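Is this the right way to post structure tokens for a design question? Let me know if I should format differently. Anyway, here goes:
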């Protein structure tokens, strides 16, 4: 792995996230990363993002909203996101 990739991974571990400025500064200082390193860095950043756990109660409440709310309404769309996130997990 390149020095830029190693430094950015270390920064990600320490800070919990990276800004575009962090990445640009590091690559200017230490050189560009390979396409695979960029993919690996992006994957590491995604894994670091906090995930919201959805409870069974929230899921059941959201399914009730899907049954009763008009399709396309804000309530329906919000409930649909909850249901999809729960089923995806």
């Amino acid at each position: 792995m390149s020095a830029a990739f190693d430094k950015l991974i270390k920064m990600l571990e320490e800070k919990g996230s990276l800004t575009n400025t962090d990445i640009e500064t590091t690559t200017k200082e230490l050189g560009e990363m390979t396409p695979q390193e960029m993919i690996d860095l992006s994957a590491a950043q995604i894994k670091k993002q906090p995930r919201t756990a959805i409870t069974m109660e929230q899921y059941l409440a959201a399914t009730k909203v899907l049954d009763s709310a008009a399709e396309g309404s804000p309530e329906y769309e919000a409930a649909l996101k909850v249901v999809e996130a729960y089923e995806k997990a």
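Format looks fine. Someone answered above. Worth noting: Helices lie at 3-15, 20-30, 35-48, 56-68, 74-88. The CA atoms of residues 51 and 85 lie 10 Å apart.
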